[in-house]
Write a structure and sequence with these properties.
five-stranded mixed sheet; globular; alpha/beta; single chain
Length: 106
């Protein structure tokens, strides 16, 4: 299961991570988010040893959502060394996320 991020543990899990982080902002009512959920879980299974694949409920964690100006979901942010290095707004194919994630290791 993907790592669960909250307003309380965001700094520790995302900003202080020594691995690249893919953070999925989602909400229970969001159908595209539900479609992406399986992709996120597959990425976690495939890449958990070299990256943090995480999810944050955008509605239940308003501080982090506001900090990153999350207006549309799913919103997938890629972090490296605590900084956003890429993003994907809206549902997409798994291969697109893999390509964005792999770029973080170069």
């Amino acid at each position: 299961m993907a790592v669960i991020v909250t307003d309380e543990n965001f700094d520790e899990v995302v900003l202080r991570s020594d691995k690249p982080v893919l953070l999925d902002f989602w909400a229970e009512w969001c159908n595209p988010c539900k479609m992406m959920s399986l992709v996120i879980e597959e990425l976690h299974a495939d890449y958990r040893d070299i990256a943090v694949i995480a999810k944050i409920d955008a509605e239940r964690n308003p501080h982090t959502s506001k900090k990153y100006n999350i207006c549309r979901i799913p919103a997938l942010l890629f972090f490296k060394s605590g900084e956003i290095v890429d993003q994907q707004i809206g549902a997409t194919r798994k291969q697109v996320l893999i390509e964005k994630l792999v770029k973080q290791f170069v």
